[in-house]
Specification:
Elements: H1 2-9, H2 11-15, H3 25-56, H4 60-68, H5 89-102, H6 111-133, E1 142-146, H7 161-171, E2 175-179, H8 184-190, E3 195-196, H9 200-204, E4 209-212, H10 217-220, H11 224-228, E5 235-238, H12 245-250, E6 254-257
Parallel strand pairs: 1-2, 1-4, 2-3, 4-5, 5-6
């Protein structure tokens, strides 16, 4: 009877060929948190490499491509940028760390604290780059933040690096104008102190610095020459490394990626 019930509940995904593993309860409880901890570690690893490439002149995207050819490593989740957010990875690694400490095995997952710290540092890194571009004082400057959701094709702003960057810049006195194709309403409810543009064009109008922080296709498809005509100062920060640096620089932009 239990097997029949499980077959019915999971019929759709079983038909797609998704494997079903049966384990004891402690193992089952660890699967999701272990998987998310591994993915978070992989993302923070490449962001740690970005911190190194930024001071050596190497390119983290080319580095990721190279080591991603090793089938033991793989290319997925090796994209450097402003880091991960959402309702799973940050929560899971912090909860896993706390639970391990309760079990007397905190040292086993102590590295996850570093994973979390690396991830949060990348958000501040973007903010620092923007501030540095204004000679250390961003107060009163119009900064466009493109993206609010923690990932594209979603209105989810839980622990969003994009929203965090916008809030941090606003806290420094910048005139932050944000735009996201789907997450505007949820962001407004959470952070009414920010200014939100009704369109991508309005967000870019008169901008002195553009910061791309969510990998929306609309942002990746931006034309550098057309975008140049809308802004007051052609400076762009590619927080997700989704733009072509050469194309933007050739069009007259000061382009800065993450670890590139």
């Amino acid at each position: 009877e239990d097997t029949a019930t499980l077959d019915a509940v999971y019929a759709t995904i079983l038909e797609r060929g998704t494997p079903r593993l049966v384990t004891n309860q402690p193992t089952a409880e660890l699967v999701k948190v272990a998987a998310n901890s591994f993915l978070a570690t992989k993302i923070s690893f490449i962001n740690a490499m970005a911190e190194i490439t930024e001071v050596t002149g190497a390119d983290v995207t080319e580095l990721a491509d190279a080591i991603g050819h090793d089938e033991r490593i793989g290319r997925k989740f090796l994209n450097a940028g402003v880091g991960f957010g959402g309702g799973c990875l940050p929560k899971d690694i912090r909860a896993f760390t706390a639970r391990a400490e309760e079990l007397g095995k905190g040292e086993s997952v102590a590295f996850l604290k570093q994973v979390d710290e690396i991830n949060l540092r990348r958000r501040q890194r973007v903010v620092d780059l923007v501030v540095d571009s204004f000679d250390g004082q961003v107060f009163g400057h119009r900064v466009t933040v493109l993206g609010l959701a923690f990932k594209p094709d979603s209105d989810d702003i839980r622990d969003s690096p994009a929203l965090d960057v916008a809030v941090r810049l606003k806290g420094l006195g910048a005139e932050v104008v944000s735009y996201d194709p789907e997450a505007m309403d949820t962001a407004r409810r959470a952070h009414p102190q920010l200014d939100y543009a009704d369109s991508l064009e309005a967000a870019l109008d008169g901008s002195e610095a553009v910061v791309v922080v969510t990998e929306w296709k609309q942002f990746k498809a931006l034309d550098p020459a057309e975008t140049l005509a809308k802004v007051a100062r052609p400076v762009i920060f590619d927080g997700r490394n989704i733009l072509d640096p050469a194309a933007w620089r050739d069009a007259g932009w000061t382009y800065t990626g993450m670890g590139r």
